[in-house]
Amino acid sequence: MSQERTAVRQRAEAVLQRLAGAQARLREDQWRAVEALVVDRRRVLCVQRTGWGKSAVYFVATALLRGRDGDDPQGVTAPTGPTVIVSPLLALMRNQVDAAARAGIRARTINSANMDEWDGITAEIHAGAVDVLLISPERLNNPDFRDTVLPKLAATTGLLVVDEAHCVSDWGHDFRPDYRRLRTFLGNLPEHTPVLATTATANARVSRDVAEQLGSEPAAATGPRPDVLVLRGSLDRESLRLGVLDLPSPAHRLGWLADHLDRLPGSGIVYTLTVASATETAEFLRSRGWAVAAYTGQAEDADRRAAEQDLLDNKIKALVATSALGMGFDKPDLGFVVHLGAPPSPIAYYQQVGRAGRAVEHAEVLLLPGAEDAAIWRYFASLAFPPEEQVRAVLAALHTDRPLSTQALEPLVDLRRARLELMLKVLDVDGVVRRVRGGWLATGEPWTYDEARLRRVAAARAAEQQAMIEYAATTGCRMRFLRESLDDTGAVDCGRCDRCAEALFPPDVSAAALTAAQTFLGRPGVQFAPKKLWPTGLESVGVPLKGRIAPADQALPGRAVGRLSDLGWGSRLRGLVAPGTPDGPAPDDVTAAIVEVLKAWAHGDDPWPTRPAGVVSVSSRRHPTLVGSLADRIAAVGRLPLLGQVISTGSVAGDESRGNSAQRVRTLHGTLTVPAEVAAAVTGLGGPVLLVDDLVDSGWTMTMAARELRRAGAVGVLPLALAVAA
Q1: Taking a C-beta distance cutoff of 8 angstroms, is the pair 667, 653 a contact?
Q2: Could you give the count of Cα atoms lying within 13 Å of 391 in the half-sphere of its Cβ?
């Protein structure tokens, strides 16, 4: 090593010691990355296991490039512009800002949670007072940031860091499509600006894809890119002990957790696949005396921060979390990770279990797969990039000179808002639409539907889902299975997992815990709120509805047996009301649950304002026998008159669409009729009517049927269904 490089390494070690303590030393690959960035100004892809120290690489490099280490006797480096870190989660940003401060590095972040600070931070960037700027990938396409901040930032960037770089791959385009915009950012960087991409969870295919995205030179037909240094290390985690427990039901899984949580070391994370599962699991564990908190993407940011801090301070035994906690949470002494339900890929699973065991000798990792996992995977896969005809409909609706908001597009295309926004981001990256103030514009550029890539992504998803099924069933080493799934060529048997050594945890569940879990999950009854606002833009498609729904037309709050995503009733209800399920009379256990819901509605903490005086059903094309038998049973048990049906005259009325609210209202408008005999019957009632249906998905069938009943003379409408979709 030359004298100059030796001096740089000594300075790098000094910065690392400020970050991690006086005994810290750079690993060889950490030094190779720092050397390539600082001395050679190269582009580097660093694929290393969680806890290896990838953030140390970019903070050490930043300190040297910015002259924040206090010593550059050889003049190897001269101060550069700020480091820009593209980071996917706010939690990750908060941890990195704190870590930078320990190394004497001034870090700031621009994100959705600090909008009132943007102007001041922008001024600091222009004044050269910021060493590190952390931004989300979505910020790259914020119109104001993209047009006013990004050009100067790209021109002065001293180091670009792409964290969680596997999201750059085609696997991540549906998840965070704005990561693909990094190609534009890269193209605007000054010549020889170093670039670092880091991830813990990239197999060989994803690594090649990310290296291709980073490359500044045309790719060769075969072999590694000469302009990208790929540092790929072992993915073994010697502190983790992996295991799988195959339990027969959600109640057994909750009961097992309540029984055995005290045997799991320290504090940890319990991952679930859905928001409903996270909230239910946390509620049950609290009822059994455990200090836990729920953490989901639907929670308020302040609540998520408080839950994170409680776990960091060991005030709770566990966070019960969805994948919203997957990247960016840093607690080195995390003692366990348990999954109630399997993630859809080994990459996702390795990412999440990697949170544990960074600074402890042993950490327990347990997977408790469920029979419902595959159905949940299929649901999330259904939210991927839409079919070509729907994309073409969006492009046809957009103008080149007059922006349309997402809300204004909804009446024109049959896509739910989240999926529509995701699709528009992908089209924006592809250059055929452009996000501006006020919405979206078409650019007029030609566009081809990349069906081959979408098929490839779908096939990759299916293969990785199958790999998770095989992981749970394997008779071989579990760590070796994960490492080989991520193309770690050095994978060997770990000697620690429940296949290599004796299983530490029996599948036994105490009778008391199982009974408590069965009782908890078997409780029927969820409330759903009435609609109070019409969707935006209906007048543009000939529907004369806007603003608030008149109070005289509204339904009252409704009730259902459960949600399709519930741990308890979800599977049972999906078997009755999901599309394609056979029609038939309501089973006895379900009608008994409806009766319990009605009892609680009458005498619970939030009872109906007035006892119902009659029963009306919504005519159903999918499940007429099911809905009819429910209405009959409710009328008989409640000793109420069965008044008839709200009739649908349209082709799909009564069947809940997966489309957006505006499209649903457009389809339903004018298709629901209250027959004269039903109108006459409801007019003279002294109380509200129960309006019975099988499934509430968008909620608009119930809303518009209730509106027709109110206009026919009903004094109130109480919606009652078997299930709500979410």
Answers
A1: yes
A2: 20
Structural Rg of the chain based on CA atoms: 29
pLDDT tens per residue across span 14-55: 988 888 888 889 999 999 999 999 999 999 999 888 778 888
Measured distance CA(86)–CA(36) in Å, rounded: 20
Give the Cα-Cα-Cα angle 410, 415, 418 (nearest 5 degrees): 90
Structure tokens at 130: 């910021």
Centroid of chain to Cα 184:
26
Q: What angle do CA 279, 280, 283 make, to 5 degrees?
A: 85
404-437 pLDDT tens trace: 999 889 888 888 888 898 889 888 878 899 989 8
Strands 268-272 and 240-244 come out as unpaired
89-98, 247-256, 634-643, 657-666: range with lowest mean pLDDT? 89-98
Alpha-carbon gap, residue 509 to 114, rounded angstroms: 47
Place of tokens 């005994």: 23
Euclidean distance between CA atoms 529 and 560, whole angstroms: 11
Instruction: Give the C-alpha separation, 682 to 676, whole Å.
Output: 10
Pairing of strands 195-199, 159-162: parallel
- Amino acid making up residue 452: A
Contact 189, 160 (CB under 8 A): yes
Strand partners, 527: 559
Over the stretch 71-121, which tens digit does the pLDDT of each residue have? 554 444 456 889 998 887 655 666 777 778 877 888 888 876 777 887 888
Query: Number of H helices and number of E strands within the chain?
Result: 26, 22
Q: Which domains does the chain have, with CATH numbers?
A: 3-232 (3.40.50.300), 240-377+462-517 (3.40.50.300), 395-452 (1.10.10), 522-724 (3.40.50)
Query: What three-state secondary structure class fits 257?
Result: helix
Beta bridge partners of 441: 434
State mean pLDDT over 639-663.
76
